[in-house]
Structures are given as structure tokens and as C-alpha cells.
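Below: protein 1.
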Amino acid sequence: MSGNRPIKFRILEILLDGKERWNYEIVSKIQEEYDMQGNYNRDSINFDIIELASGGMLKDVEQKVDEDGIYKKSFLLHKYVITDFGKARGSDACLRYV
């Protein structure tokens, strides 16, 4: 469905509904949609999320240590929500909530 769209655009698109999501939820959805299995791809997608947050398009609203190994054991998990700036940039890129 979304495999042709740049990953960062797809991340914004997933969050356009305004709901808060954990990084591992976003990463697993992207991995499935783009057929990107493995730890390297997992971490690469997570880095894309971090870049969007550092650019002001996503806001980090909660953190917790991954004690259960959902993403990566002892790793710090982050919950994100899209910002108004992210919504505006997504609109500029003709993204829509899917």
C-alpha cells in the first residue's frame, strides 16, 4: 500500500490522526508495510522517527524503559504525537490520514 512513499512521509501520515503512538508501534507498522525486517531496518526506521522529532514535526510525550523486550530490551521507548508543524508539513506534502 505505502511501500512507494518515502518512509518519513509515511511516519507523518500514520500520526496525522493526532493519536499518541509508541515508537515500536510505528516501527513495526513500517517494517510490515515496506517489508523491512531485521534489526538494522528497525533501528533505521526509529532513527527516521527521531529525526522527525528533532525537526519539530513530532513531539516526544512519554518515555519508559523496555523491560519486556517489546522493541529492544533495556532500550528507552518513546511515545510521539504529531505537532501542528508536522501536520502543516504533511499537508504541504499532500499526505492524508490512512
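Below: protein 2.
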Amino acid sequence: MKSCLVVDDSKVVRMVARKILEGLNFQIVEAENGKLAMEECAKAMPDAILLDWNMPVMSGIDFLRQLRKMDGGQTPIVVFCTTENDIQHIQEAITAGANEYIMKPFDSEIIESKFSQVGLL
């Protein structure tokens, strides 16, 4: 079973993502900010990371930059999931190492489609 780290400061978003991803046979770990996500990755690197941009403590983009410098941090497939949908944010995310980008709000079809595109399904 593949693992996915869901990183979002919204408990509701984490809950919805968990439900969708568990339905796609992913084992889920949650983190409410980038700092907690770094701690989870230090314990065990997930196969995938569904990542919000705007969070307290450490933003998604800061987390991604640090993740890609970690031992094994090139391995997880990172899908940004955010309301930031302008071209600058998307380019910044891809440059920092994101594999894909999903706009909020999302549904199971969108997640399944993006996860298929990046080879997770």
C-alpha cells in the first residue's frame, strides 16, 4: 500500500483528502503545517505528498524546498493543492520541485486524475 502525507492547516480539507485517498488505497498521514510535515518525512518518507501552500509555522513552498534537500527527499511525488492559481505560484511550485498542481476546491475525480498522471495510480 502506498503512503500519502496530507499537509493542510484545514482539518476539513485533510478529512476530505483522507477519505478520497483511502478510497484509492493509500495509507494516510496528516500534518497541519510544513514543520510537522518535515518531522513526518524524517520519520518515514511517503510515496506522495498532497500539499497546501498557505499555512502557519511553515508554508508549503518552504516545506517543499527543504524536502527536496533532505536525504530521500527527491523521492515523494508532490502535488500542490491550493487556492493559489496564478502562473507565478504554479511556476514557483514546479521550479521548487512539485510534480503537479491541483486547485481548491477539489473532488475525488480531480485527485484520481492527477495521481494517475504522475504515476501513483
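The mean pLDDT is 96.
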